[in-house]
Amino acid sequence: MLFRTDAAASASAEALRAHADDQLSQYRHELAHLVGIDSGSYSPDGVDAVGAWCAARLAAAGFAVETPPTPVVDGRRFGRVVVGRRLGTGTRRILLFAHMDTVFADGTAALRPYREVGGRAYGPGVSDDKGGLLAGIHAADVLDRIGYAGYGELILAFTPDEEVGAPASGELLRAAATGVDAALCLECARENGDVVVARKGVADVHVDVSGRAAHAGVEPERGADAAVEAARLLLDAHALACDGDVTVNIGVVAAGERPNIVPAVATLRGEVRAWTAAALERTLHALERRVEATTVPGVGATFRREALCPPLEATDTAVLFQAARAVAADGGWPLGGAATGGVSDANFIAALGVPVLDGLGPIGGDDHSPTEWLDLASVPERVALLAGLVVRIAEG
């Protein structure tokens, strides 16, 4: 299509919403197809089936599509990343990103097929994140329909492993995000329609405790009880939590071999979450110091951090949140912002210094459960919001 130089003037809230409404039937048909594909994070063939559909859909919409393979991680293969790029007439580069994987095992799509009841769609991954992924594609379609290409480059990136922390796709997504002017995360909106303006950062922690075994009946005094130290560590770790600002959860505790042996080893595995990078680092440092200062004679312990995900702080989202609220106000749609303890790929993009806004997909809920749902009535509004936000960012 030949884009008009004054196309931004045609991007009224009413026009965007009208085009999004026109596309709803197609959206529902495509959503049913995607939800019908099992695409658990550890099912690369299923993820690649979703990716092949996305790649073809983007190519048909005028995007140049790349599907770079992801690296093998700890002997495990993951699906490919899909990146679509469409050049415009402006200067600002805008990234929309979502994930193709779900938390559900193969066979779930057949066990719980896509269905619509009472204005809601149900099925595995319907809101997290196939509904959001599809909203990004339809927002690009709306921009095409109104003849708007005032951005410098519109990039849509879909990843295969967000649900397990993006071990394979993280670097590829960060490469796609490097140098963009704004990034819009297509995770589903909160149940009240709020976008996500902050997410906690999280670090996994692993503690190994080493003591000395002894016969618990004959000579227990010769033992050094690793289980006692682990129990004290557990209580002290949870004491580091701070009124919801910082949470500490030791979710796995294991110690000993038999009831009649003083435990020689123990293991604790958990996580620390915090709203700011400073609070996360401060808590991790305090926990490490406590692990080093063991309290049971003869017992030692080691601490290591694993899988650190930085927080998405409110300062990372403030400018785009105000822009989104302005777009919503033009359309007469209320738009609030929420903070959540869960993480997404948006956390990693924000760490690059890129302005990010999260939760821009349609309204949904009960993620990761058999009752996961998506509000179909919210789809046109969210598609229009996305398209309008792209225009507002591109126009500065």
TrEMBL record:
Its cofactor is Zn(2+). SUPFAM superfamilies: Bacterial exopeptidase dimerisation domain, Zn-dependent exopeptidases. InterPro entries: ArgE/DapE_CS (IPR001261), Bact_exopeptidase_dim_dom (IPR036264), Pept_M20_glutamate_carboxypep (IPR017150), Peptidase_M20 (IPR002933), Peptidase_M20_dimer (IPR011650), Peptidase_M20A (IPR050072). Residues 197-296 form the Peptidase M20 dimerisation domain. Gene3D superfamilies: 3.30.70.360, Zn peptidases (3.40.630.10). Keywords: Hydrolase, Metal-binding, Zinc. It holds the Pfam family Peptidase_M20. This is M20/M25/M40 family metallo-hydrolase.
